[in-house]
Amino acid sequence: MRQTALGLVLLLAPGVCAAGELKVYPPAVAVSGPNRVQQLLVVEEENGRVVADHTTKATYTSSTTSVAKVTADGLVTAVGDGDGTVTVTVNGRSLQVKLTASTGVSGWGFRNHVVPTLTRTGCNSGACHGALAGKGGLKLSLRGYDPDADHFALTRQVVARRVDLARPADSLMLQKATRALPHAGGTRFEADSDHHALLLQWVTAGATVPAAAEPELVRLDVFPRAALLKPRDTVRVVVRAVYANGTVEDVTRWAKFVSSEEQAATVTEDGVVTVVGHGEAAVSVLFGTKVAALTVTAPFATPVDAAAFTPPAGAGFVDVLVLKKLQLLRVAPNGTCSDSEFVRRVFLDVCGVLPKPEETAAFLADTDARKRERLIDRLLDRPEYVDYWTMKWSDLLLVSSRRLPQPAMWAFYRSVRQSVADNQPWDRFARDILTASGSTLTNGRGNYFVLHRDVSDLAESTAVTFMGTSITCARCHNHPLERWTQDQYWQFANLFARVGLKNGDRPGEVLIQPRADGDALHLRRGVAMPPTPLDGKAVPEGDSRDRRVHFTDWLTAAENPYFARAAVNRVWKSLMGRGLVETEDDLRDTNPATNVELLDALAADFVTNRFDVKHLIRTVTRSAAYQRASRASPANAADDRFYSRYLLRRLPAEVILDAYSDVTGVPTAFNQLKSAAGDSTTPTTSYPLGTRAMQLPDSLAVSRFLEAFGRPERVATCSCERTADASVGQALHLNNGQTLNEKLRSGTSVVARWVDAKLSDREVVDRLYLAALSRAPTAEERDRFVGILAEAGRESPAARREALEDFAWAVLTGREFLFNH
């Protein structure tokens, strides 16, 4: 491909985009020769979003047909050398476009054209020849991550058959793909298609090898980047490849398109997006080793009064940006939750505990307008906050004796807990773990490297834990949904290849020390790649510093695009029920946040405030978005991701079990540990009676209840380990299990105290509701339960005791108790 000077250049007349402005994309185009084309995209824009696609309605006139021709659909081809103009007209409005054309033609490259064609048509997919063992004797690299091997397989393995240089049209790769010959994979393209033409021209030209002369693909430009449409509207997508030598070309014909939400918008294989519902969809574009995405927004049909989107007085950026998004989508936000809902919600979200009845009563009686802010501040200073967030970060870091000796597990846990208690800035927390050295018993953070001894496991776990992104696929091949290549993976992995481990003198002790040599070898190439952070700069040659220091300098830098966003997204999900990026381990370009502006603003605020986790929690919980009522209205029932209401979610296993202990007054005993293999148990005295479930440092502490309700095993660095899905086992535990029933039957339980104190039925009902649900019962609820208890009391004391247990069981197994709302 020649430099841009040899191409066709289209330049729009200067102007500032205004509401309803006619625009043509791309703003600059390079095309040369009859086999290169550029699709023009003619659109109506408002506030940076496409609201209508006029491409097929526009008329196109070339002033110099000897230089370039333009089809009725806006497809531009250079037919000569020289300058000219194209006039684009839509409904009486015109734009004049300058052009420069050249007939200089370069052939099709294997890496930049043939491989993407095989990817677009599915030939090198995992279901076809890209499978591990290939298909029908032909093995191609998955989505073309190894062009050299693919070229050898097509041109050399079955000489003069897959590629026939003497009779190009008879090449098996063409005959089978068009079903001219039997093909188990079916028809991949037609004989009159652009795909067939490209491959035939490549074979005719001698089936050129992947050459260094082929420019490196730098990025994809996608037009449009955002669209605001209504159901049944369409917009076509134009994709332009930008290469390292400055050349550009339209690659729409060879790109792959995927919609993230097909209930909102679909996309054809040719890149035509159709809105089919309401909401928002990200359309991913994949070509070569690069990916890009555009956002298609389809507002809901029912108009909403603009006053509903006015930020409350003194609103911070969270509410401004949440309401901005809701207004764009026409989703009405809920009003503010009640004080009783708020006090229960924020206790559970910040500290993982229910408020005590007297705390609830005091909060409800408080008339201070700032009482919610003051409560948040008090909660952040409580020891339960330390317990709860230590549990969360221990989940993330896989603290467990499953792969650590007990002394090492305790050292790791205590270091995490101390960091939470000190409100250690998140960047320092990460740096201290990732550069830990010395004894793993003295510096418990070093056990991170004991858990991840394998360099690939260490690299992949670090990317998920501290960057919120998965690179695992790129270990063996280029990532199918992200821009990470296999080469980048092994460059990244080599940052961790010099972490040395050796056994210490004490039981369970490992000594962590950086080594002076050693490299991780590329899985396919068998050579060491320059140690380089993802999208970062390589460690300078000859630099003798610990490579981990180079990595953490890059990771924790204010401008790092992953670190702060991953952290704030995890905290946001914990408080709001759904991450701005879902799942929280899947931050990537093709999985954009539901509110990109908000994620960016939260990350920037986090950095500005020196990675202060408490500040982040305070910022979110003080917002009106967090304090909205949870009950869906007809105006927002379809919203589960834009935060028009607080999202209901089941409480974590540990929180439920601790709440049972708190409400019943009977602590849970943890006196058994599972073996690492899980096939036996041994007694333990490490957890004295009164230890809360969320204070357990070890996921091997035996509790069938916790296992049934989704406690993570802490084996894999993945948020998927903790589950909130309902199961038969949970139902059995609630209905017939010993955990709750034994607590209610205990002679020291709250039920026994009710009986001993001779509380009236009304007092019992009121007290349990306040303790369990942080509210008073409604008149209907009170009358119903008082009636049941009174009837049992008339029968016998034993019957009343049983009725009291049944009443408590009914409240403590109900949805309102088990969920935060």
From TrEMBL:
Coiled coil: none annotated. Gene3D superfamilies: 2.60.40.1080. Residues 1-18 form the signal peptide. InterPro entries: Big_2, DUF1549, DUF1553, Invasin/intimin_cell_adhesion. The keyword NAD does not apply. The keyword Acetylation does not apply. This is Bacterial Ig-like domain (Group 2). It comes from Urbifossiella limnaea.
